[in-house]
Amino acid sequence: MVADVTPLTFPAQDKPRIAKARVGIVIDASCDVPDEFLNDPDVAVIPIPIRIGAHTYVDQHDPVATRRYMRENANGEGATGQSVPLDAEAMKALFVERFSLDYDSVYCLTITQSRSPIYDAASQGSIQALSTIRAQRQAADISRPFQFRVIDTKQMFAGSGIAPLALHDMLKSGMDTREIRDALYRVIDSSYAYAVPDDLGYARARSRLRGDKSIGMVSALLGGALDIKPVIQVAQGNTAAVGKFRGRKEAWGNLFGLVAKQVSRGLNVPHVVVSYAGPLAEVKDNLDFSRLQHACENEGIQLHLVQMSITGMMNFGPGGLVIGFSGPEHRPQF
After folding, report:
1. Hey, what CATH class is 23-188 in?
2. How far is CA 159 from CA 154, 155, 215, 236, 324, in A?
């Protein structure tokens, strides 16, 4: 339960009821996606309360809240923070309020269940919501069937942004709904994320809280002394350290180069998401990022540079960088 944090409200829709079938997309707030996706009226965000000491932040892609978090936690205070995800009852309330009468199909895509309870809470909440939604639709004389799917992206942060973008493209293209589910799972199964924490000590503190052993004690101490930056791969819900470099410039350069090579090989989805826990100008001004931009332009890939979610910033710390895409199976070679 989250009764001891700031109450969360889900504004009712004031749009006129429509007869045309409509599909909604739900993501949790840790999912890093561009503003144009969030601005779609058929997209909803599951908020995530974050506690750091005596302060509570509500992660819901609100720029004001994000700037406040960055300002108040610029020195790594978030290392001891905790997320307080909504429980099943709160998920039910969101789903009923937002989708019961105006939608016939809803896809809810969440951060990997191997790292968060959000998937389980959303699954339980959707089941609990169905009877209420069906009763409301019957009272409103809506006879069309209603379906609600909760799907684990098996990814985190920028990585979990790829599946919603792919789904959005499928819906816009008019793909048959009977084909969407299988296509979406193929995207998920081929999605990768690569992360570069800027502070190994911070990253180790966070990984210990999550039970993630990707970064060990010796690596943290050595990294702090030599400014070593690890590269962590996320695939199929699993994390593993796949490289380490001296300093940010070398780490980012190698990672942007790796992704540029994958773009040139051909991606499964025409999107690459880069999320950053800091001023976005620091990424835009990077020469290797510019090379990745050119590679994406040459291949017709949309490159999205976005502010990392509060949840992501809490987990990776100031200066953390995550890149997500969906492409052929590969071994990272730097």
Report:
1. alpha beta
2. 9, 5, 20, 11, 4
